[in-house]
């Protein structure tokens, strides 16, 4: 396949054009040739200057660069482990972030401890940056809980499965920060599919009207299950912000440095009281939507192969090597650390106990509820009736 | 009967419930150019459960439409298309995702016929795969039928088997009223004989799927199969249970429930949805009114708890199962 570079800025025709379905898989945009795309590292690992955003990564040390690399490698390793745990039946489902490591690590590392993150259900890399133990993310995918972590311990909200809902929560949280006179900021993650939801449009409206300190971080991974972005929008998504009265930027989502720089810029705007920003991280979902999905039904292998050349980890490795910021020892050590993480996750999942049956009735209300108490008692009596019969 | 057997040899074939709906949609697309299919991933992918598999390929993108990811938009535009003379069949991908569209369904779809003094008809079918038992993550296993049955202006149905799924879909599409069509997703792969020529009974009529004399089990959708298993297990203990498949929740065929209860004098209602203010509550109230002097026991209900649908590893405890229904049967028979 050849990537159609000249058409990079041209919005595609949406539904109703007969040829759309057949062509979407062979004529995709190339981020590296998009003049509007913020990129600091090319797919070949070359550092390119950017007058607007360089200052946000100007002081970055080799140690910090290696840190970003390590974050991406470990996140990918964790993700791969989770996928195989699903295949082994240890998880019911897994939503892989493969290919989106740079978007998540770059934006996640841009946040400050007091900032607040509202994820979708795929932000495993952001969770990592926030210090959420990866094994905590797996409970809901194993089916032992519906969330399971305390959002306030890392300022990392629970995963949200209903598409787009969390953008309004993020906006409200940001409105609260303003009311409190604090200089924290909020970052709300969502995808290209979610951009069609009413909740997302409403969150843009509210955040603009109330000048809320929120960054809308849209990972445009090109696919909402089987539907390409063209089924959601005629204009590039970052341009939506303009109509709501705040800036929108498209960043190379496979460039961790660019994602870090642009997100820092957007968060600092928020802290300064300049209101919301939309960041569209242009990236690619390398895997299936979830382990239940079969992408061979709707997209061509060639498209994936073209994006493999833009791999986020590979390009930072090339840069680290070319600039002598990392040696063989570093990569070897990371490889070992990576395997150890995989092992730890595997063991933790296998050891994760099934919840107590009575967990059904726990935490339904903060102040209790007579009907829940009554049903819990009935359930207990029912379960006890089996014990009386010598165990079923 | 002889005639039915002859025609069965020609027109009846075994198919899974999902395939039966697929065939029914195909027939509707073939027979009425105004029928449209709309939803997320219904086109090229054929839906996440493959219920619309192959339809876009055969009927084109203008009739089998991959919509933006926006449920309110799907139902809202379906209303507009219906105003323009189309008959949209829209898919909500999972039960827990219907709520962005709930406003359009409740405030617009359900009421426009009455508001227009009968001038406007909205023949929209909203397909919703519902219910648990498939080990899914949250918002993928819910049974919100009572939330729709409570709204006047909507008809609410749920087939339990492939044959009903085929014919009830035909009838739902032909209906001039909006129909919320709840598909029992855990039964999508269950096969049954579907006779595509047999003339079906009315859409909103219940069916006795097993005759009995000691107690009536009323269910619909995914719980009918369970109740048949319960009846079989009870038969081994010498109890004769009748199983009534409601098929329609609104309107609800109280006459058939009454006729069965007048015979058996005992009633247990089973659904996955929470018991509290669920359809079983309405059935219990009505049957108590209608059959007060026939009943030998209070009407009992088996269903979900007043708690969020639990994570997958607890759903067996939450959902009505063989033992829980048998327990209710025993309690009803003990009066």
Poorly predicted parts of chain A: 1-32
Q: Helices and strands of chain A: which structural class? A: alpha/beta
Order of neighbouring strands in the sheet with most strands of chain A: 1-7-8-4-3-2
CATH architecture of the largest domain in chain A: 3-Layer(aba) Sandwich
- CATH homologous superfamily descriptor of the largest domain in chain B: Thiamin diphosphate (ThDP)-binding fold, Pyr/PP domains
Q: How many helical elements of chain A?
A: 14
> Of all protein chain pairs, which has the greatest interface, and how many residues does each chain bring to it?
A-B, 51 and 44 residues
**Number of domains in the coordinates of chain B?**
2
CATH topology of the largest domain in chain B: Rossmann fold
Work out the helix count of chain B: 13
What form of chain A results from the Cα inertia axes?
Answer: globular
Query: How many strand segments of chain B?
Result: 14
Descriptive notes:
Chain A: Residues 70-351 form the Dehydrogenase E1 component domain. Chain A: This is Pyruvate dehydrogenase (Acetyl-transferring) E1 component subunit alpha. The complex is a heterodimer of chains A (392) and B (335). Chain A has 392 residues and is α/β, with parallel strands linked by helices. Chain A has 2 domains: 20-350, Thiamin diphosphate (ThDP)-binding fold, Pyr/PP domains (Rossmann fold), CATH 3.40.50.970; 357-388. Chain A is built from 14 helices and 8 strands. Chain A has a 6-stranded parallel beta sheet, sandwiched between helices. In chain A, helix 2 packs across helix 4 (124-130), helix 3 (101-110) runs parallel beside helix 4 (124-130) and helix 3 runs parallel beside helix 10 (256-271). Chain A is globular and about 75 Å long. Residues 1-32 of chain A have low confidence and may be disordered. Chain B is α/β, with parallel strands linked by helices and 335 residues long. Chain B folds into 2 domains: 11-195, Rossmann fold; 207-334, Rossmann fold (3-Layer(aba) Sandwich). Helices cover 38% and strands 20% of the residues of chain B. Chain B has 13 helices and 14 strands. Chain B has a 7-stranded mixed beta sheet, sandwiched between helices. A 5-stranded mixed beta sheet of chain B has the order 9-11-10-13-14, sandwiched between helices. Chain B has a two-stranded antiparallel ribbon with strand order 1-8. Chain B is globular. At the A-B interface, helix 5 and helix 14 of A face helix 13 of B.
């Amino acid at each position: 396949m050849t990537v159609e570079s000249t058409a990079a800025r041209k919005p595609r025709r949406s539904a109703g054009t007969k040829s759309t379905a057949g062509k979407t898989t062979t004529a995709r945009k190339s981020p590296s040739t998009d003049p509007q795309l913020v990129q600091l590292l090319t797919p070949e690992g070359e550092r390119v200057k950017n007058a607007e955003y360089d200052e946000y990564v100007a002081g970055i040390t080799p140690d910090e660069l290696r840190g970003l690399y390590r974050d991406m490698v470990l996140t990918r390793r964790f993700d791969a482990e989770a996928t195989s745990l699903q295949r082994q039946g240890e998880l019911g489902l897994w939503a892989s972030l493969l290919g989106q490591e740079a978007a998540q690590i770059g934006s996640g590392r841009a946040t400050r401890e007091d900032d607040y993150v509202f994820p979708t259900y795929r932000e495993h890399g952001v969770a990592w940056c926030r210090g959420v133990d990866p094994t905590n993310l797996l409970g809901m995918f194993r089916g032992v809980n519906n969330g399971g972590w305390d959002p306030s311990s890392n300022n990392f909200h629970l995963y949200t499965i209903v598409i787009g809902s969390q953008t309004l929560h993020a906006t409200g949280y940001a409105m609260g920060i303003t009311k409190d006179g604090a200089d924290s900021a909020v970052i709300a993650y969502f995808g290209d599919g979610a951009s069609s939801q009413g909740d997302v449009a409403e969150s843009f409206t509210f955040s603009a009207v109330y000048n809320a300190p929120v960054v809308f971080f849209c990972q445009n991974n090109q696919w909402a299950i089987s539907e390409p972005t063209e089924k959601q929008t005629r204009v590039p998504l970052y341009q939506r912000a303009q109509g709501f009265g705040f800036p929108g930027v498209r960043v190379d989502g496979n460039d961790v440095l660019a994602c870090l720089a642009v997100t820092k810029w957007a968060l600092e705007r928020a802290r300064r009281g300049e209101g919301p920003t939309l960041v569209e991280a242009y990236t690619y979902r390398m895997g299936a939507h979830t382990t239940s999905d079969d992408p061979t039904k709707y997209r061509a292998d060639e498209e994936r192969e073209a994006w493999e050349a833009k791999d986020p980890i590979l390009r930072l490795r090339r840069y680290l090597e070319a600039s002598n910021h990392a040696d063989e020892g570093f990569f070897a050590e990371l490889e070992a650390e990576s395997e150890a993480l995989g092992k730890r996750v595997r063991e933790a999942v296998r050891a994760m106990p099934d919840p107590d049956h009575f967990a059904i009735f726990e935490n339904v209300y903060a102040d209790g509820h007579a009907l829940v108490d009554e049903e819990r008692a009935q359930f207990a009596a029912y379960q006890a009736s089996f014990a009386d019969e010598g165990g079923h | 009967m002889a005639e039915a057997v002859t025609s069965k040899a020609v027109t009846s074939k075994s198919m899974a419930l999902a395939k039966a709906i697929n065939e029914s949609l195909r027939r509707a697309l073939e027979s009425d150019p105004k029928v449209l299919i709309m939803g997320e991933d219904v086109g090229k992918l054929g839906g996440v459960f493959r219920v619309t598999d192959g339809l876009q390929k055969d009927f084109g993108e203008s009739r089998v439409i991959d919509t933006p990811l926006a449920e309110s938009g799907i139902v809202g535009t379906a209303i507009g298309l219906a105003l323009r003379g189309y008959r949209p069949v829209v898919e909500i991908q999972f039960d827990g995702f219907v709520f962005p569209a709930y406003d359009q369904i409740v405030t617009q779809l359900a009421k426009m016929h009455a508001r227009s003094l009968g001038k406007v008809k909205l023949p929209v079918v909203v397909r919703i795969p519902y219910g648990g038992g498939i080990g899914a993550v949250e918002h993928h296993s819910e049974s919100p039928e009572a939330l729709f049955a409570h709204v006047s202006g909507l008809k609410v149905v749920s087939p339990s088997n492939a044959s009903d799924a085929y014919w009830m879909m035909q009838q739902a599409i032909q209906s001039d009223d909006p129909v919320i069509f709840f598909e029992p997703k855990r039964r999508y792969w269950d096969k049954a004989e579907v006779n595509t020529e047999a003339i079906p009974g009315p859409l909103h009529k219940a069916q006795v799927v097993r005759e009995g004399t000691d107690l009536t089990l009323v269910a619909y959708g995914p719980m009918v199969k369970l109740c048949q298993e319960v009846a079989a297990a009870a038969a081994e203990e010498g109890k004769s249970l009748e199983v009534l498949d409601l098929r329609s929740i609104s309107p609800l065929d109280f006459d058939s429930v009454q006729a069965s209860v007048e015979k058996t004098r005992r009633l247990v209602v089973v659904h996955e949805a929470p018991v509290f203010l669920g359809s079983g509550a309405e059935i219990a109230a009505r049957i108590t009114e209608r059959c007060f002097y026939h009943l030998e026991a209070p009407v009992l209900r088996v269903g979900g708890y007043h708690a969020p649908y639990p994570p997958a590893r607890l759903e067996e405890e939450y959902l009505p199962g063989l033992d829980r229904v048998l327990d209710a049967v025993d309690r009803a028979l003990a009066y």
